[in-house]
Amino acid sequence: MSAGRNASLRGSQRGYSLIEVIVAFALLALALTMLLGTLSGASRQVRWSGDAGRAALHAQSLLDTVGVGAPLQPGQRTGEFDDGRYRWTLQVSPWTDPLVAGAPDAPAAQQLYELALTVQWDDGGPRERLQLRSLRLAPPDLQAGFL
């Protein structure tokens, strides 16, 4: 009786084979690799988003000051933010409306300037950049009113 009982216990206590354990570990390793790849991509996007947001704040701050302390002058200026982490280039050029410029009876209007600002930064990979364009109305020349 005890021999039959031992045989039935051996059959019911059957464990996993070595091949099944190796396949389970391989599937687990594959799943963890995919999960870590997704998380590293997400962290890269979060870092880029933070850098782009900071660049946008610096760019907006710079555009807010252009033409305030000194009159607008056509030309190009460069500079840096955050001890060289962000580099910027500002191009100021006269702007004319292409629809009005060709009209023979176009009224003389105040001068508009196009501000083209590029902010660049390095985040360990390829150089990233943010480009902004804006129009700014030049204040009227005060001397012209006295002539």
TrEMBL record:
<keyword id="KW-1003">Cell membrane</keyword>
<keyword id="KW-1133">Transmembrane helix</keyword>
<protein>
    <submittedName>
        <fullName>Prepilin-type N-terminal cleavage/methylation domain-containing protein</fullName>
    </submittedName>
</protein>
<feature type="transmembrane region" description="Helical">
    <location>
        <begin position="16"/>
        <end position="39"/>
    </location>
</feature>
<keyword id="KW-0997">Cell inner membrane</keyword>
<keyword id="KW-0488">Methylation</keyword>
<dbReference type="InterPro" id="IPR012902">
    <property type="entry name" value="N_methyl_site"/>
</dbReference>
<dbReference type="Pfam" id="PF07963">
    <property type="entry name" value="N_methyl"/>
</dbReference>
<comment type="similarity">
    <text>Belongs to the GSP I family.</text>
</comment>
<dbReference type="InterPro" id="IPR010052">
    <property type="entry name" value="T2SS_protein-GspI"/>
</dbReference>
<keyword id="KW-0812">Transmembrane</keyword>
<keyword id="KW-0472">Membrane</keyword>
